Amino acid sequence: MSVEQSGQVLGLSLILQLQQRIRTSRTLDEAAFIAVNESKLLLHYRQAVLWLSGSGVVALSGLPLPDRNSPYLNWLTELFPALLCPTVPTPIAVSALPSAIASDWQEWLPANGLAVPLVRPDGSFFGILLLAREDVWQEGELALAAELGSIFSHGLTLHQRKTPFRDKLRSAGRNLYVKIGLASALVLALLIPVHLSVMAPAEVTAKDPFLVRAPLDGVIEQFYVRPNQAVKAGQVLFSMDKTGLRSRQGMARKSYEVAAEEYRQASVLALQDDRGKTEMAPRRGRMEERAADLSGTGKLLQRMEAVAPRDGIAIFSDPTDWVGKGVTIGEKVLLIADPQKAELLIRLPVADAIALEPGTRITLYLTNDPQHPHEARLTTAAFRAEVMPGGQVGYRLKADFINSSDLPRIGLSGIAKIYGMKVSLGYAIFRRPLTAVRQRLGW
Fold it and tell me: Is residue 4 over pLDDT 70?
């Protein structure tokens, strides 16, 4: 057998193989996947797209499913309506396309495109198989493309004729008894009692923490601990800038030395002259005043270092946010918390507020570990709504964890599901629309 005959036999076997694959495909999606990926058995191309009238782009080569929100698919959606409905495989003239589409062709597809029409047995056009590559399409390849179009037209038409399951249900719904049964089942389902529940952002916070404040007015010079670091009682946490206070101490020391020397001179003079005795008392008073000022400055210097009042973990933001920042006396700097004492802080939006009682069940789903929820019970709820971080208005709720031996780490956040009273399923579904209607109409 000659080389030419061998090539013809191979091409025929590949066509038969494609026909067999299309005939055995079970769904339209499977047939479309074969069309854009297995056509390479007969024709060389780099990208393929299958577009069907009424459905849009249904398959892309190399992808299991097209992404409906991708820029590529949006561009293809504009491209296919701009293509004329060919009756035979036709190379695409990019220059003849609208300028808005032609300008982006090189970004999404190779230079040479081929439109293979898909036609039903009655001659009506229903889709295009687009093949694109860098090389120019040859005359012999157009004949193979026409055969591919015939194969896929037949297979895809058969799949489109199959009655979907939803159509069968629609046909069954025409039966009056079926409609009554479905309506009754729906009404009964809406009466099923369920727990009214809402979701709200939540955070694990420290329970009864100790607040460490700025000891004096000044600037924070250095932090000696890191966020969430374990600290011991008496450990230095941070220090204030001592430059100004040391200068003040130096001036106080100098004033004390001057007052002490004046008092010494008055003491010596008092032994020789009565005038010295009269000056001793005021000079002694000034010396004691300067001594008190010097002692007070030394005590202030000792207070420039804040120490941990008890064991725990240091809770504060990044130290770089504090170093060099001016603070006033009593201003909050950090918290010292016991890691074995944690509670749940929930920010419930006003729109989701429901009737709550102490002991209400709450389930926390942490962002970093949603597969292991934590159970808690409501302890307190704010009487009045307030502005939350982010500008949203809501209520602050606090809850204690039930399992104290498995407390989540302080600082973790997630979503809390709050369970309210038992209501019907219908009320749980339509609660918010019903509330909006009643508030709008006053009914």
Answer: no
In which region does residue 362 sit, left (phi positive, over 0), alpha (psi from -120 to 50) or beta (all else)?
Answer: beta
Closest among 430, 233, 215 to 332, alpha carbons compared = 215
In order of 150, 164, 171, the CA distances from 168 in angstroms are 30, 7, 5
pLDDT score of 167 more than 80: no
pLDDT at residue 331, rounded to an integer = 83
CA geometry: angle at 374 spanning 370 and 193, to 5°?
90
Contact between 402 and 426 (Cβ < 8 Å)? no
Superfamily of domain 3-162: GAF domain (3.30.450.40)
pLDDT given for residue 298 in this prediction: 64
DSSP assignment letter at 356: -
| Selected residue with higher pLDDT from 262 and 199 | 199
Which CATH code is given to the segment(s) 209-241+304-337? Answer: 2.40.50.100
Could you tell me if 152 and 144 are in contact, meaning their C-beta atoms sit under 8 angstroms apart?
A: no
Tokens 């300067």 map to which residue? 290
- Please state the rounded mean pLDDT for residues 23-31: 79
Which of 348, 356, 354 is closest to 395 using CA atoms?
Answer: 348
Q: What is the DSSP string of 159-187?
A: HHHSPPHHHHHHHHTTSHHHHHHHHHHHH
Bridge partners (DSSP) listed for residue 336 = 210, 314
Helices (H) and strands (E) in the chain, counts: 11, 20
Residue 54: partners with Cβ closer than 8 Å, 6 or more residues away: none
Task: Band the pLDDT of 140: cuts 50, 70, 90.
Answer: confident
For residue 87, the model assigns a pLDDT of 80
Closest residue by Cα to residue 244 from 287, 304, 322: 304
3-class DSSP assignment, residue 283: helix
CATH fold of the domain at 341-441: Elongation Factor Tu (Ef-tu); domain 3 (2.40.30)
According to DSSP, the β-strands at 125-133 and 374-381 are unpaired
Domain chopping of the chain, boundaries:
3-162, 209-241+304-337, 242-303, 341-441
3-state secondary structure (DSSP) of residue 83:
coil
- What is the pTM assigned to this prediction? 0.46
pLDDT for position 3: 39
Please identify which residue in the block is written with the tokens 């450990």.
Answer: 235
Comparing 131 with 327, which gets the higher pLDDT?
A: 131
Is pLDDT above 90 for 364? yes
Asked whether the beta carbons of 399 and 377 are under 8 A apart, the reply is: yes
